[in-house]
Amino acid sequence: MDETKKIFRYRFLAEEIEQKIMNGTYQPGERLPSIRKLHKQSNLSISTIYHAYMELESMGLVEARPKSGYYVNPLALQNLKAPRFKKVSFPPKKVRLSSMVNSVISAISNPYLLPLGSTVADSELMPFKHFSRILKDLSHADVKSMISYSLSEGLPELRRQIALRTVGVLEGITPEDIIITNGCMEAVALSLLAIARPGDTIAIETPTNFGFLQLLQELGLLVMEVPADPRYGVDLDELENIFRRNSIKACLLIPNFHNPLGALMPDDHKIRLIQLINEYKIPVIEDDISSELHFERKRPMPLKSFDQEDRVITCSSFSKTLAPGLRIGWVIPGKRLMEKVQNLKAATTVSTSTLDQYLVSKYLADGAFERHLRQLRTTLKKQVVRTALAIQKHFPSGTRLAIPDGGTLLWVELPPQVAGLKVYHKALDHHIAIIPGVVCSNSRQFENFIQMSCGTPFTEDLDRGIVRLGEIVSDLSRQ
Ligand SMILES: Cc1ncc(COP(=O)(O)O)c(C=O)c1O
Questions:
Q1: pLDDT tens digit string along 165-174?
Q2: Which of 41, 249, 254, 299 would bridge with 287, disulfide CB 3.0–4.6 Å?
Q3: Model-wide pTM > 0.90
Q4: How much distance in Å is there from the Cα of 316 to the middle of ligand 1?
Q5: Which residues have C-beta within 8 Å of that of residue 46, sequence separation ≥ 6?
């Protein structure tokens, strides 16, 4: 049998058992059928079953007990309770960022701290060797062409490669519909500049990516924070109420694998959201940066795939999948805003680094991206599950979290008396970086929340870090 078929077989079996563990069909502590028994009762080979069990063991979902067999981890993830959210909205408000934000940014970028707050995956998991080969193969003539400006909308080959990736996801996108940006943040910034003026109100999820709050503050925009469900994203009833009563210039949302919630908006919610924005004629800037990091087999659809009236502006980048430092992102502004966004791009940053664009377009053209993504998704899923299990084991009761269906982030609700900010400071004393939930909102909500990242390989050091965090949270919960 060819290798890929073998891989799929063991993954299918691992996924099937994983689902049965998650939905309680297999009980915590229960013994899995022996490899020999399963082999006899199915047409699966010993090696397929063995690999599937190993896969589940590496996720921490089962344990191998010497001379006894494989057992479901007694800590059952199905017992996890999702974090709660309050259905309260606030009037439009200027963004006043907590003074903590700069300290948090330097902590999560400090390479000497345990990176439990980073919002991107570790470079170790990225194809840096492939990039290195591309760089080595560059001729003098190549480099000569790359030290000049590229077109402000981007290198044609990179735009073509990105357009190719929209096949089956977004209908009818051509290279000319895409503008290359310096990361997803520039894509979002240009979209906001194209739509809104200082003093206008933007509806955002709460909590949200604190980078957005920084941007909205600097652009002089007001925000209306809309409550978001930690599993399904923005609350559409609240959003409709807000549309009815306020003048909203645009929404800025993260429907797929939200930062910091990890929430995934179901398709029927996306369809209703599109109906709402069409009814109220309000554009949505969607940040689709993490949707390639799905743990299920299918990629979640961007909001734009449901948009027939050209009201959704899609922003994304390769920061979560390839290389955050290359700063390669893109915006699909749609026909209404194309010219405006193009002019803004030319007038602000002129163009994106030609060399960085070349590197990414060559990498994509080499055809290794899909394989890398498959590997990355599997690794991240394992890291997410292991981190969630470790939190469940070491944090005190009253801690709540949900396992996301993709991405690298866990949104953790701590017992009510535990301030995430105190946890943040005490963790720093132990060289651990996390994100206190309070910086993810403009109205100082989420005081007893923290955001943790699973982008780093799950080593013993990391496990020890989570044990230490658990001790910090337990101590604070007793005070
Ligand atoms: C939701 C979201 N959007 C945007 C960004 C920033 O993206 P970029 O580095 O491509 O500008 C991040 C970074 O973590 C993010 O989580």
A1: 999 999 999 9
A2: 254
A3: yes
A4: 8
A5: 35, 36, 39
Interior CA angle at 285 toward 281 and 290, to 5°? 145
451 lines ligand 1 (CB under 6 A): no
Mean pLDDT of 449-471: 96
Domains of the chain as residue ranges with CATH: 3-77 (1.10.10.10), 79-85+94-123+373-478 (3.90.1150.10), 127-365 (3.40.640.10)
- Note the pLDDT tens digit of each residue in 220-278: 999 999 999 999 999 999 999 999 999 999 999 999 999 999 999 999 999 999 999 99
Mutate to test the pocket of ligand 1, among 317, 318, 321, 322 (most ligand atoms within 8 A of CB): 317
